[in-house]
Amino acid sequence: xxxxxxxxxxxxxxxxxxxxxxxxxxxxxxxxxxxxxxxxxxxxxxxxxxxxxxxxxxxxxxxxxxxxxxxxxxxxxxxxxxxxxxxxxxxxxxxxxxxxxxxxxxxxxxxxxxxxxxxxxxxxxxxxxxxxxxxxxxxxxxxxxxxxxxxxxxxxxxxxxxxxxxxxxxxxxxxxxxxxxxxxxxxxxxxxxxxxxxxxxxxxxxxxxxxxxxxxxxxxxxxxxxxxxxxxxxxxxxxxxxxxxxxxxxxxxxxxxxxxxxxxxxxxxxxxxxxxxxxxxxxxxxxxxxxxxxxxxxxxxxxxxxxxxxxxxxxxxxxxxxxxxxxxxxxxxxxxxxxxxxxxxxxxxxxxxxxxxxxxxxxxxxxxxxxxxxxxxxxxxxxxxxxxxxxxxxxxxxxxxxxxxxxxxxxxxxxxxxxxxxxxxxxxxxxxxxxxxxxxxxxxxxxxxxxxxxxxxxxxxxxxxxxxxxxxxxxxxxxxxxxxxxxxxxxxxxx
Length: 495
Ligand code: TAP
Known about the structure:
Elements (H helix, E strand, L loop, with lengths): L17 E2 L1 E3 L2 E3 L6 E5 L6 E6 L3 H17 L7 H17 L1 H12 L3 H21 L7 E3 L4 E9 L2 E5 L5 H15 L2 E5 L6 H12 L7 E3 L4 H10 L5 E5 L2 H11 L5 E5 L5 E4 L5 H13 L11 E5 L3 H13 L19 H16 L3 E4 L18 E4 L6 H4 L6 E7 L2 H9 L3 E2 L3 E3 L3 H10 L6 E2 L14 E2 L2 E2 L6 H5 L1 E9 L1
Parallel strand pairs: 1-5, 8-9, 8-11, 9-10, 11-12, 13-14, 13-19, 14-17, 16-17, 19-20
Antiparallel strand pairs: 2-3, 4-5, 6-7, 7-23, 12-22, 15-16, 18-21
Helix pairs in contact: 1-7, 2-4, 2-5, 2-6, 3-4, 4-5, 5-6, 9-10
The structure holds 7-thionicotinamide-adenine-dinucleotide phosphate (TAP).
């Protein structure tokens, strides 16, 4: 493996027809010469080719990351220097905000409002960790006599970071920023469907002066390159966001080398709407909770439980507003709901809806793939509301990952909590009530990593994000994430 390079890395147009891997600080083509094509889900058009990483490429990336970690300077920089570099990454991202937004929209088909918020959050993540790392200190502990003990946080090493397609840039930022803040090196594997902004993020890191080998990006197949990274003995940690079944397989494989693992997995998050809630706020919050990002959100509030005394009023307003949601041009400010990522996800969503219908559920709104004028070759699904459901239906139990809400009534607080907790998942949840005592009681009883009280979102930099139960473990987006990229060393001395 070559030594660490320092020459200037020239930025390129963000929107282009071909994207390379980033290995050891250089744009690199696949050793096989293979590429794959990325499609705009809103139009079905091919937008770019991407170098397709092989296991050989993954090996090169791991060795570059290893070299940078074991023999490079990054982890030994004074912490304020690493902090400055993270701020520089954020500043370049800010200066190219509109380009990043455009690329994210083309890659995912999401609405401009969603893309703008997510790109801004990715920038703020780097700024947040630039600040947080400076005060990420060890501790001093009292021991008897002349013994002394202090602890130090040491970066865990080379981290494989595997990214899903629903928030391609934001999820990459959630992982890369805390990892490199601590001094780790990373090998990022973006989702094959949406690799573009993660590749560009890798380029910006290098352009910012992050030494070669610290950030490597290997777009390639999850079942091949992903597994290769997870199995490799020179990789110390895997951070994964994606589906629960793949998360389970990663945990099993990673056990062979006892890697550190963090998993952000699927969800089936409940919203509890009590009779004393501000109903209009709960309606708007529930629309956002399920239809934001076309429902392709791990924390989508896809199960809505409404107290029976306000059920009719809530449903009338919720259904009427659902039917008015605009699908279409993702670049238009008037578009509420963007495209679905691809044909196969569209079929998965439709399969859940059809199966609920066959089991006696009532489709209150939507319920079918949508035809959108001017976007006939894209992938679209009508915002859908389903009632008359039971907890044994797949549409209520399983993560649909699309714009589909199931709704049920509840009698009282006890039943609401029982319904909310009747799931293998435990990622997000929402409680709508004006009664502070009730909000506190219910929040404590819900088995989920996140509770949103009278608000439809939670993911601000600094707020822990992650799940209970089969939604995974480990928290991202917060100070505690830094601990997950470190080992704690205890030094006991006697003078
Ligand atoms: P997955 O199919 O699980 O894919 C996620 C990533 O893992 C992709 O990069 C994928 O690569 C890779 N991968 C697939 N099989 C792999 C394997 N055997 N070994 C290693 N890597 C592998 O999920 P998805 O369809 O991209 O994303 C949707 C899921 O992610 C949903 O279930 C959603 O809830 C979850 N999600 C969770 C969160 C949080 S924070 N909990 C956030 C976003 C999404 P390829 O693209 O090449 O297949």
